Amino acid sequence: MNPVLEAKGLGKRYGRRRALTDCDLSVPQGRVVGLVGPNGAGKSTLLQLACGLIQPTWGSIDVLGSRPGTSATQLAKVGFVAQDTPVYATLSVADHLRMGARLNPGWDEQFARRGISRSGLDLDQKAGRLSGGQRAQLALTIAAAKRPELLIFDEPAAALDPLARHGFLETLMESVADLGASAILSSHALSDVERVCDYLIVLADSRVQVAGEVTQLLQSHHRLAGERSRLATLPHGLEAVHAEHTNRASSVIVRSGGAPPPGPWKIEDIDLETLVLAYMTRAGLPAAHTAPMTEEATR
Ligand SMILES: Nc1ncnc2c1ncn2[C@@H]1O[C@H](COP(=O)(O)OP(=O)(O)OP(=O)(O)O)[C@@H](O)[C@H]1O
């Protein structure tokens, strides 16, 4: 089975600004992927490249086995909900469904009607009068009713209150399960990512910092806590992702092949938020702080 998204040496430049650099990814199908990273990391750029809305400056990207946006068949396989969940303000909810049916050969009217009634939307309501949460539900329903193999969301729940956000994510998961589709969503809300995603990509400073199955990432990352002098040099096979020190104590997030070896330190599991923050912080530090810990790095 083709990866849902495969990038090789992918890069994008806007004028002199690099938005994405040396991006290598191979995301398997059937995953709900959380794409996280600080403002300006390149998340929207990656998602727009995946939809074929923009073209790479360097390298290549394939989505479901072919170049994004290059044919009607390829376009029909991908549903995209952009950052501001755009809808047509003067058209009613029913008008949106009619337009969806006319524009998409694979349109599933029953699926669309089910989505609208599940979200409690009124077919006669003008989209311009919908709340942010209702607008997001409408945009999701339209993207999903074309029965794509991949749904892409750019910060879909960013403007929603916690209740609307909860409802939106529930609908998103139900839609993905109904369709048997894959999904990629960018988000700043790590709790949302933790709730719905089983695959993680951390982008920072225009580069992929880490990517993989969430369970595997959590199994291969730990916190070592102990005396600073004892943690100054790590055994072979442990990579320090991020370290914090007081005068005498150190706390180091490490990556390893499996469980870290026992030593003069306490070994703790970490959660998704700790993992993401460790990689985001590392990306923001000069090289001397990001290298595997050495005597020099901790001096
Ligand atoms: N059309 C554009 N023209 C020029 N620069 C752009 C354009 N789009 C994005 N950029 C720049 O590319 C970089 C990456 O932007 P991008 O929108 O992909 O980041 P992001 O991770 O989605 O950010 P946010 O979380 O704030 O939405 C930023 O420095 C941004 O200013």
From TrEMBL:
Pfam families xrefs: ABC_tran
A Gene Ontology molecular function term of the record: ATP binding
InterPro entries: AAA+_ATPase (IPR003593), ABC_transporter-like_ATP-bd (IPR003439), ABC_Transporter_VariousFunc (IPR051782), P-loop_NTPase (IPR027417)
Domain ABC transporter: start-end pairs: 5-230
Nucleotide-binding listed as a keyword: yes
Gene3D superfamilies xrefs: P-loop containing nucleotide triphosphate hydrolases
Protein name according to UniProt: ABC transporter ATP-binding protein
Organism: Streptacidiphilus fuscans
